Amino acid sequence: MSEGKSGATPLEGDGKRILLILGTPKKESLCHALAEAYSLGARSKGHVVRQLRLGEMQFDPILREGYEQSQSLEPDLLEAQRLIHWAEHLVFVYPVWWGGIPALLKGFFDRVFLPGFAFKYRNRSQLWDKLLSGRSADLLVTMDTPRWYFRWIYGAPAHRQMVRTILGFCGIRTRRLSEFAPVRPSNEEQRQSWLRKAEALGKKA
């Protein structure tokens, strides 16, 4: 878990409260650079940005017994829930692996977005209450697959999972989904342009 490179907690003023969740287990990657660029842009406009780096957090990503039995939340996950409640805007930065989100990010959702926190089923009804309504989200996604191929051949499964069946299910409205792809054949010039784009997105937060 991190507040950014400086380690300092920014002062809260009139800016928006932003929680950036870095959803890769890697210690260094393009996702890290995109996250820092977005944070830099957002802070330049007076927004307060805090970060959760899942690869640095200590928690069991496996929901052992589903929702039938309670599984105690580790301190890092309790802090994550606190920050999600604090935030007005969420930013998820992650790679697409095997057409979906990384297992660590999926495990984070399994453990943190619990009934009573993120949603609540209504008695004797197929409907549910979206307990995280009122929040918006930006998604910054890296892929090796070309964007057109991921969308038209694969059907963009990771995007539908995030936008509809996870965030939308809990009431979080995805405002922008930005793809940075294909990463593997990209050169330094291309990556620098992506970082500039991420910074610009942060300024629009």
Automatic annotation (TrEMBL):
Keywords: Oxidoreductase. It comes from the Bacteria. InterPro entries: Flavodoxin_fold, Flavoprotein-like_sf, NAD(P)H_dehydrogenase_qn. One of its GO terms (cellular component) is cytosol. Residues 16-198 form the Flavodoxin-like fold domain. The keyword Calcium does not apply. Its EC number is 1.-.-.-, 1.6.99.-. Gene3D superfamilies: 3.40.50.360. The keyword Oxidoreductase applies. SUPFAM superfamilies: Flavoproteins (SSF52218). One of its GO terms (molecular function) is NAD(P)H dehydrogenase (quinone) activity. Belongs to the NAD(P)H dehydrogenase (quinone) family. PANTHER family: NAD P H OXIDOREDUCTASE-RELATED, NAD(P)H DEHYDROGENASE [QUINONE] 1 ISOFORM 1. This is NAD(P)H-dependent oxidoreductase. It comes from Ectopseudomonas alcaliphila.
